[in-house]
């Protein structure tokens, strides 16, 4: 292998995983040895939400993820304009009608 070539890694993506999971809330916790990212979907008028996906990362991988997200957000904003930052608390009602049985 030449010095300027990167090792090749084949990554497989199943159809189920390729569909993705929608999340509108992420909760991040950590211990001394790992970061836990819980991705949650909250629905309007529904008082209960489930974790849809949980990702465990080492602290080093969490730091790489933060760097990669920052780089991708910067590229996105260069192309699409600044993303509006919302400083208000996450709305639990979404402003819509509440569910009734």
Outline the structure in words.
- The protein is an alpha+beta fold and 101 residues long.
- It has helices at 15-18, 59-80, and strands at 25-30, 35-41, 50-57.
- It has a 3-stranded antiparallel sheet with strand order 1-2-3.
- The longest helix has 22 residues, at 59-80.
Strand arrangement across the biggest beta sheet? 1-2-3
Largest sheet features: 3 strands, antiparallel
| Beta-strand content bin | 15-25%
Helix/strand structural class: alpha+beta
Number of DSSP E strands: 3
- Specify the overall morphology: extended
Give the SSE order as H and E letters. Answer: HEEEH
Amino- and carboxy-terminal Cα gap: 66 Å
Which consecutive residue ranges, at least 5 long each, have pLDDT under 50? none
Calculate Rg over CA atoms. Answer: 19 Å
Work out the helix count. 2
Q: Which whole number gives the mean pLDDT?
A: 88
Helix content: 25-40%
